[in-house]
Amino acid sequence: MDIQAMLQRAYDYGITYIDKGVVANYIPELAKEDKTRVGGAVVDTDGSVYTVGSDQYQFSIQSIVKIIIYLCVLEHYDFDYIQKFIGVKPSAKPFNSILALELSEKNIPVNPFINAGAIVGTSLLFRKYGNNTFEMILKRTQELIGNDKIDYSRSIFNSESSSAFSNRALTYMLLNGKIISPDVNVDDLLNVYFKSCSILVNVADLAQLSFILSRDGKDSAGKQRCNAEHARILRTIMATCGTYDYSGEFAIQIGIPAKSGVGGGIVTASRAGYGIGVYCPGLDAHGNSYVGTRMLEVIAKELSLNIY
Amino acid sequence: MDIQAMLQRAYDYGITYIDKGVVANYIPELAKEDKTRVGGAVVDTDGSVYTVGSDQYQFSIQSIVKIIIYLCVLEHYDFDYIQKFIGVKPSAKPFNSILALELSEKNIPVNPFINAGAIVGTSLLFRKYGNNTFEMILKRTQELIGNDKIDYSRSIFNSESSSAFSNRALTYMLLNGKIISPDVNVDDLLNVYFKSCSILVNVADLAQLSFILSRDGKDSAGKQRCNAEHARILRTIMATCGTYDYSGEFAIQIGIPAKSGVGGGIVTASRAGYGIGVYCPGLDAHGNSYVGTRMLEVIAKELSLNIY
Amino acid sequence: MDIQAMLQRAYDYGITYIDKGVVANYIPELAKEDKTRVGGAVVDTDGSVYTVGSDQYQFSIQSIVKIIIYLCVLEHYDFDYIQKFIGVKPSAKPFNSILALELSEKNIPVNPFINAGAIVGTSLLFRKYGNNTFEMILKRTQELIGNDKIDYSRSIFNSESSSAFSNRALTYMLLNGKIISPDVNVDDLLNVYFKSCSILVNVADLAQLSFILSRDGKDSAGKQRCNAEHARILRTIMATCGTYDYSGEFAIQIGIPAKSGVGGGIVTASRAGYGIGVYCPGLDAHGNSYVGTRMLEVIAKELSLNIY
Amino acid sequence: MDIQAMLQRAYDYGITYIDKGVVANYIPELAKEDKTRVGGAVVDTDGSVYTVGSDQYQFSIQSIVKIIIYLCVLEHYDFDYIQKFIGVKPSAKPFNSILALELSEKNIPVNPFINAGAIVGTSLLFRKYGNNTFEMILKRTQELIGNDKIDYSRSIFNSESSSAFSNRALTYMLLNGKIISPDVNVDDLLNVYFKSCSILVNVADLAQLSFILSRDGKDSAGKQRCNAEHARILRTIMATCGTYDYSGEFAIQIGIPAKSGVGGGIVTASRAGYGIGVYCPGLDAHGNSYVGTRMLEVIAKELSLNIY
Questions:
Q1: Beta strand pairing call for A22-23 and A59-60
Q2: Contact D91 A92 (CB under 8 A)
């Protein structure tokens, strides 16, 4: 398989959908992105990297960081204990629904990939790391991706934190339900979360993260970057909950575990062992990159990645 | 009618229920109240005042201040305009339900007597008075009651503001839904609301407020303390929404417009022209004073106040 | 007061709104009604009857029969026992909401004036009267109104029963929740309910029903047609729940207990002692007669009927 | 791999949980099942069959038939057209929740594996086959499993149809929302559905169904029993929605597509190419066979079937 040629075909197919996507406008800084910018990267099973399009362009990781936050939670707490705070159930509700929270069995977030779930995850890390929590998350991101230059965007962070009414509402509901400990400072907690969402990556960075998750935690040099069991749990939740309330359709159409972010990135995980990341900031109605999803359709098909 | 003797009968009947009530415990300072403390006051149609029990004891006004906040809103905005921000619909949901808000037609609070409705009302006043909003509300309370000594309790205010997760969640949901203007400072806004809830009154103060509302705004000297039309609107909303999700049962059992607070006070409004206030901090499951409700049962019956 | 002239003024004012109403179209037979047909009737406190407009026109009673069904329930069961099956809480949800039912505290209908409440009421009567239940309800209607010619419309009954999916859904939910006894035949039960809704009345009939309710059960000859306490309970529930999710607004705008039906009729109850019925089949968005509501605005004002 | 020995280990492990399950009691006939009865069957990739425990015992297929109903729908309608009537979204709500239906985007069942979804699927088949619909479904079941003796249980069918209030409520809601065509007879429609749920199978039958689904529609003789694409779609929905609101946890714990029924059976689908069926009528709180799930834990692990 000529990966480079395959990636080019995915790109060529993807950009035919470029008019369909809509750039996220609820965060002012994101609204500035250029929806014609498209990129993709694949790390082959031997570790060699192929890219297409705007491969150097840095965008904010957004919800994709929920993978890393939940990984850190798994690394610090027992899985059964975590279930008391964050479920692993798929949800047919939009990612920021407060209704979903109030109706869920024990008022806990249904899974770690809705906003409420990531905020509770962050609060569990905050218990251990306090004001160093973001530094820990950033360092873990650098290690997983193998790129110590990774940093967050101050302007996107400022943009997020100034308009995050629904995330604040969720946080106070979680405090009210005693899911988040009352001694946490809400501003400090949300600043960690917003900074995490503002981490800048390019498609090759995403592909490296994907590579680790896809190979039970091992990088191309064979070094164990995270626990194999944690990688498996993450792949599973990506499969059932990774693309918001579109996860059911995504499973049928693309068929691989994936996690998207409203910044326009999508990262996959596939036991076949490839690392894959795509980018285009125009989103579909569910908050997933329109062109990115179409690119994954080609990639998954040509590399026979469908897990079902 | 010997009002004093009637009031004594109400007291004697009410205290037989003293064990049934439960003191509110979600605000630490309220939890200290003595649930055997009972008081009542009636202002006769000629203005003479009768009291029974702990008539000098000062307690926090709590949700009863929602009457005054909504009156201030009516005094500053057109009624039709207010409908865009706060409805006048009864609700069968508990006073602090976030679900009720998310499910309501336009995401606006269903009425001014649920927490969300009072917070939106406060935000409308904040637009006009900014950091002087609480002073305005306090002054208006003093004028209506005719007692310029009325002040708020610092300890109850501190107690409320430190544990108000659900009110903060509601406020951020209202900001998210653009029902509250985004340029308001949430802490400042909620401080006004919490200070308002912490205003200290005794049963005679409540009876004077009741007297004004019952007489289309006129005090015993014939002075117009508030607009007659506003008094009518408030009496109506007290009838349909005044005792939380118990309003339907209250209408059948007692039959007069009333507004309760979790501090233990209840104030009524009745076109028959009496002023009535009762107090006992033990609450029923809906948040209304247990003994107070039973006292009103006697008072409403003996003075033939049932409006239906 | 010249009642006839007053009624004419109400009519003249009401018909200026004739274009605003929309005839109910969910029952085919109702959709045929002429929305320019308007009628009104007032029974003065001495029993004399005044009418205006289409005073002889017979229309289906629809939800107004919920008053009579609940009265029959009150006449056969203890009030506290009834509370286990049907609440008395106002609701901000539309009259046929299944959601409202699922969310209510004990899965019981919140009040007797939503469809679920009337169906449960009918089932309680069915326990006692079986296949004679409708005959009993019809006879009680004739007695209350004092008109033994009152009958139901076969064509409207057929029209209702053939398109009543949401009422059947509600009935099976109530069976599932054990609120309705499992040995009742659903078709038989709903036929009783649909026949009851199809009872034909004119505005003078409604005004006679109103007269009884308004005078604690007594007719103009002083004969007790129903229990005074039952009349009081019905007036109270009409005040808080009588005009569906518009009840809160109706209380402020009109200020008298009333019950509307999608047939276009509205009946009131007022301790001032008048009997009042109005009709026009064009409805507002909440299911209440548009012109009828406007006529009541004039009548309530001119006769000083506002109870708040 | 010695499949027989592996199956025995699964059995031995599974029965240690035998006290944890609870036999379904909402259908009287099911309540009679013996919760100590346990069976399992595996069809090896070469077509040879291995069984353990009560391998001849016939139990009702219940919700597992939803696979076959949806397969028939896929065989008669275009996938995009089907999406207008039945979604493919996972749900965190219980299988019979009416709330889930009312809250879903277009009032359509979120997926084909909740009751509402299977009833709508049946109604789509009813459009084509009318009163022969059940015969068609039964025949298709016989063909897929390769066993023309398969029949349904009259006693279980009678038991189901006499106590199916929530399914009737769902059906009328779907009629009300125009998701089911109004000319369908509800009794006829539900009889098809209840008969389908009452089809009797043993674990070897389930394993044969699993074998077909697992091998893209081919049986052991290489004959195409259903479309490969349809098998893939079914495997995907089994993965995301197959074990009710436990699907997220099941994916993490067991990791293979599966569909359970309240009769106690579970069938899996796995591209590795094995056919697997297990049985024990004691259920967990989500409606899945307790012992069966534990047996699958061993089987999935020993055969390395986890797809994530």
A1: unpaired
A2: yes
Separation CA B167–CA B85 (nearest Å):
17
Provide, as residue numbers in chain B, all residues whose Cβ is less than 8 Å from the Cβ of C235. Answer: 308
Q: Which residues of C touch B245 (CB under 8 A)?
A: 89
Q: Indicate if D168 and D206 belong to the same structural domain.
A: no
Which residue of A168, A173, A182 is in closest CB contact with B98? A173
Could you tell me if D29 and D155 are in contact, meaning their C-beta atoms sit under 8 angstroms apart? yes
Pair B55, B106 in one domain: no
Domain boundary among C158, C175, C197: C197
Same domain membership, residue A244 and residue A174 = no
Each residue's pLDDT, cut to its tens digit, for chain A (308 residues) gives 899 999 999 999 999 999 999 999 878 889 999 999 999 999 999 999 999 999 999 999 999 999 999 999 999 999 999 999 999 998 766 656 666 565 566 789 989 999 999 999 999 999 999 999 999 999 999 999 999 999 999 999 999 887 789 899 999 989 988 999 999 999 999 999 999 999 999 999 999 999 999 999 999 999 999 999 999 999 999 999 999 889 999 999 999 999 999 999 999 999 999 999 999 999 999 999 999 999 999 999 999 999 99
Half-sphere exposure of A125 (CA within 13 A, CB side): 30
Whether residue C155 sits in one domain with residue C118:
yes
Which residue from D92, D110, D233 is facing A110, i.e. has the nearest CB? Answer: D92
Domain final position from A197, A222, A242? A197
Q: Test D102 with C103 for CB contact under 8 angstroms.
A: no
Cβ distance of C90 and B239 shorter than 8 Å: no
Residues C91 and C107 in one domain: yes
Mark whether A106 and A175 lie in a shared domain: yes
Q: Evaluate whether residue A204 is within a structural domain.
A: yes
Q: Give residue C280's Cα distance to chain centre.
A: 14
Looking at residue B212, which CATH number applies to its domain? 3.40.710.10
Cβ distance A89 to D241 less than 8 Å, yes or no, reads no
Q: How far, in Å, CA of D166 to CA of C172, rounded?
A: 6
Residues of chain C contacting residue D172, judged by C-beta atoms under 8 Å apart: 165-166, 168-169, 172
Domain count, chain B: 2
CATH of the domain at C178: 1.10.1500.10
- Domain coverage including residue A180: 64-197
Sorted by sequence, the CB contacts under 8 Å of residue C206 that are 6+ apart come out as C41, C64, C265, C266, C267, C276, C277, C278, C279
Give the pTM. Answer: 0.94
Dump strand ranges (E) for chain B. Answer: 22-23, 39-43, 49-53, 59-60, 200-201, 258-260, 265-268, 275-279, 282-283
List chains touching C (3+ CB pairs under 8 A). Answer: B, D
Token look-up 């009421």 returns C121
